Amino acid sequence: MITLSEINSLLSNPDPLFLENLAQRSAQLTRQYFGRTIALYAPVYISNFCSSYCTYCGFHSHNKIKRFKLTANEMDQEMQHLAKQGIENILILTGESYNVTPLSYLKEAVEVAKNYFPSISLEVHPMEAAEYKKLFETGVDGITVYQETYDRKRYSEVHIAGIKADYDFRYGTPQRAAQGGIRSISIGILLGLAENLAQDLLALYEHLRFMEKNYPGVEYSVSFPRLREIKGKVFSRCDVDDMTFVKIICLTRTLFPRVGINLSTREEAHLRDHILELGITKMSAGSNTSVGGYTLKETEDQDPQFDVSDHRSIADVIKLLKSKNFDPVFTDWRRI
Ligand code: SF4
């Protein structure tokens, strides 16, 4: 395993030739293990109710925003809209409210999603292994859960209240999801939260190694969302510039050649296009981060969880991938 000082020296190395070599190695490994495939998915937000207070997120329980929770019919409308554009892999998101969006509600959403998508992932509140088992049996194959930061002190500064304030419960979530039979698990850190980026990366890599060793049957991916501004809130970020972002992607690829690396529409279109060659294996497209944001007029006046930076449609992203000689993959999973 890489050491902390090696990560630090890599992140601080200004030599363009060094970065070029790292990028080439990362691109080569990605082609070796993934060919020229890029998996596409789209998020669908079905609720913004949240009982946790994370200072960096617009959905937090103390923020006076309009709250929405979709009915099964509204979910159907949103999902149908995405399915018509070719999406087969959906990521269903909620805030983290155990009361407003309990397991029964999530199962209802999965039942709707099954009408349209062979691959269904959830990014919702952490649960127990038995609940993940129920979700898997209902039709969920993927869980996304980010630790956000592995720095316990920083974690408790920004996660003030609610279940998310429990660092250890969150840390154990990928493990419980794997025990529940979930086939694909995505973990990550929110870049911009921790002051010591190298330390956070090392902890993420250790978490991933632990999961790979103990749950080898699971397919893993990692994400590095960068912190964005939220409306009406000034939050002191530890900004991660584009060069550092690229280094993180390439370093991760060289350490974990078989692990998926996701890229969201938080990133600008030009950066997404350039970084595609280097290590990315999965990206969101045509994203809307508001509840009911694709089709529902009634929910128009709301604050999204974060602002999307790449506004291109799903069709445009598919066109772009093909123009760069990539094979867009809509799903690599069918339940039999
Ligand atoms: S990050 Fe998640 S848990 Fe925290 S406030 Fe936002 S939606 Fe709620």
Structure explained in plain terms:
By secondary structure, the chain is of the alpha/beta class. The chain has one domain: Aldolase class I (TIM Barrel). It has 12 helices and 11 strands. α2 packs across α10, α4 runs parallel beside α5 and α5 crosses α8. It is globular. The model has no long low-confidence stretch (mean pLDDT 93). The structure holds iron/sulfur cluster. The site of iron/sulfur cluster has 9 residues, from loops.
Keywords for this entry:
12 helices, TIM Barrel, 8-stranded parallel β-barrel, alpha/beta, 14% strand, binds iron/sulfur cluster, 336 residues
Report the biggest beta sheet as strand number plus sense, adding barrel if it closes.
Answer: 8 strands, parallel, barrel
Structural class: alpha/beta
Portion in helices: 25-40%
Low-confidence stretches: none
CATH class: Alpha Beta
Outline:
globular
State mean pLDDT (0 to 100 scale).
93
Number of continuous helical runs: 12
> How many domains make up the 3D coordinates?
1
Find the CATH topology: TIM Barrel
- Distance N to C terminus: 37 Å
CATH superfamily: Aldolase class I
**Bound ions, cofactors and other small molecules, one mention each:** iron/sulfur cluster
> What percent of residues are in strands?
5-15%
Name given to the CATH architecture: Alpha-Beta Barrel
Q: How many strand elements?
A: 11
Task: Report the order of strands and helices.
Answer: HHEEHEHEHEHEHHEHEHEHEHE
Strand order, sheet with most strands:
1-3-4-5-7-8-9-10
What is the subunit arrangement here? single chain
